[in-house]
Amino acid sequence: MSAESYAWTAHEIRDAVTSGAVSARAVAESYLARIEACDQKVQAYVDVWAESALAQADAVDARLARGEDVGPLAGVPVGLKDLFCTKQGFTTCCSKILKGYRSPFDATVVERLADAGAVFLGKLNMDEFAMGSSTENSAVQVTRNPWNLACVPGGSSGGSAAAVAADECAFALGSDTGGSIRQPAACCGCVGLKPTYGRVSRYGLVAFASSLDQVGPLTKDVEDCALAMNVLSGRDERDSTSADLPVGDFTAALRPDAKGLRIGLPKEYFTDALGADMREKIEAAVSALEGQGAEVVEVSLPHTEYAVAVYYIICTAEASANLARFDGVRYGHRAAAAADVEELYRRTKTEGFGPEVQRRILLGTYVLSSGYYDAYYSKAQRVRSLIRKDFLDAFEQCDVIVGPTSPTPAFRLGEKTADPLEMYLSDIYTISINLAGIPAMSMPCGLTESGLPAGLQIMGKPFDEATILRVGYAYEQNRGLDMGRPAVA
Amino acid sequence: MEYEAVIGMEVHVELNTDSKVFCGCSTDFDAPPNTNVCPVCLGMPGVLPVINRMAVEYSVAAGLALGCTISRWSKMDRKNYFYPDLAKNYQISQYDLPLTYDGSLEIEVDGVRKRIGITRAHLEEDTARNTHSLGGGVSGVDFNRSGVALLEIVSEPDIRSAAEAFAYLTALKQILQYLGVSDCNMEEGSLRAEANISLRPVGATEFGTKTEVKNVASFSGTQRAIEYEIARQRAILEEGGAVLQETRGWDADRGVTVSQRSKESAHDYRYFPEPDLVPLAVDEAWEATIRETLPELPQARRDRFMEQYGLPAYDTGVLTADRAMADYFEAVVEAGAEPKQAGNWVMGDLQKLLADGDVPIGECRVEPDGLAAMIGLIDKGVISGKIAKDVLAEMFATGKAPGTVVEQRGLVQISDADELAEVARAVIEANPGPAGDYRGGKKNALGFLVGQMMKATKGKANPKLANELLQHELEKG
Q: Is A461 a catalytic residue?
């Protein structure tokens, strides 16, 4: 283990703090120093909470000194994507329209992390309102990929992924509507899990597309992912869509082999759209899992080709309503000197929302409009159920489905900003999972020739995150490659 | 050409649940502005709605009372439009799968009974209230009302006159008040009614172009607005013109409807299913549980009152108009009073005292057994019916028992024959003229003399005895 605790995983920190080997304060100081050293280059944080982080760490140390229970994340420094409501600091979704906005309450997941003894380091950059795949749509700053500062970190949880990859937090919270945890996790070489829809409370997550949004962790390894899921998961009375199902202990399910597991490879994911370099990495990972006792079967997800179209109808429709509340009347940006209420709305939204957000609001408004609803929204919902059925049918033959997280590794800054459609295709392998509501995890499976991480995506049955984590852990323990860490500082 | 009016009503009632429909805030929206609010009903970023079980049960109860079918599976939808009183800029409502649908309500106009179809009754949230009276060019929004549960009840276009519309509203209010699900106070805004009105030639089956009339503050105002609108449309049609489809507001001061919004500028609400809420599944068992809580409804109660108590139709109508009134009446009978007498006292003197004092019957200080006891005193001849009116007034003012009032004020009826005979002789002596008239055959002079006796005894003379004694004394001498 490195002398610098910022390089440790969350479970290593928790063990060290709980055993008294290191104080929570020392860990927090190590991370704050790391942020100080790296973040000028990476630009992951939009707000760093140094003072309160140290106070929270001191509180953990004080509880330990009194012999009190300190929780499963004692002293673990965590970063939060800027769309989680926090009483502390600002909650802006990296949008001008929420500049300076302070939430009157903490998100359920923030409460759960706090109760588990986590220390909050601050808020992380993202695409405005989680709309984007490169974090370039942030109204605040451009985050860079720690593996190559000329490249994007992916998005929309790009700040979360970059912070984890650069050791600027032990783990981070992200949200995933169409791949916003998994794609940046793949770009930055970390582990990112989008849980089953309903597994984690959405209360306090500023909504992008309510039927697709899920909260999940971005971590340094699979064990941390399981640990974070133990804390985050479970029914919340404040979220009617959260599932009232037992959670169990995800860390207990981790085993270093894949014996008796059947792994499905969807033929639709291994086409020419997948780069040769990327394909090679995925196939090597599958071989490694076979070596651990897994059986590989081919499966088919026949409606895959419709996923992008369906996704951009449903997510924009829901977003057009979810973002309607930002109108300058009660909070957030308000256009000055509007003559009447209609002008107030028009100017507030024009000034406050960036181009991608405006584009999606317009798209969503269009697909819900009288005369278009049946052709777009209603049909998309029907295809959505077919996409879900594809997965459920495939899971008749296998325990998990494995494939790439994204077609290419991280691209260069500015490379796709001019072409929204090209940007949308970054998510072809991830959005079906949100439409189906099933869980999926991205984890690193080596570096491509360009020296950037490749992401392996493991998809599971509804509410079977445990098997995904087990497969991921088996691969991680036996993958036989040392990717190292990006050299940022 | 003869025209007939085709009218359908849309009525919104606030359900009187303790908390709002999607958050735990109190529904007391008369509290100081923006005090019964939270992040959910203010539409802050990151919040989610959680449906109020009581609001669902009240809606189902209302649906059952209106003879509706209860949906085994329904859902909430988002109705999108921008307005400062709408916190999220969408209203959570129900679009294509309402909680209850396909019922009817019986009304009676001029002795004719008729059923009005109920298309649906669905649950939704109320908006906030805008105020433009703050001065300084500033408008305010009070979110206390934001998120209060509303039930929207939509009728079929079965109503044919303003009088029928009035009867429909009255019957609907009566049922909802019987259920206890809403105060239905139109003046306070807990009931809001809109009428869709069109005209067509008598005998035609197609609908004419309709207008929607809003902003009415009372049932009688609704009746007047509909009467006005029918006349307005008839005048247009008779001149060969075309009615414009639009929303019109009722201007009560001028007694006219005024154009507010034409169809061209009507909203496209872009309804879609509310993804933050799971579908509502009211299964047979839950429906049965709610059905068991339903009270006896007005129509059934009227029928029973006629049969069980032998009351005339008019009396039963008055006594059952209000559930509390009907409950009160039955309690008086239960306490031993004869039904017809009990009914007369409740409908007559008691109702007047309540109305004059603006006291709801629930706060009446005359307990049902007190009224029954008072009626008992009349039956036993302790007090006269006339004295009883004063006794009741005092009971109403002070809450005292009738026996106490009678005793304290010395109102016990004089039934002592010797004592009254003396009074009778004195009255005859003091009034020789009428006494002579009586003896001369003008028997109706007796009434005057009885009156004089009552006056002399401050109304306490037993009238029957006074009558007999006077006749005896007059004929004797």
A: no
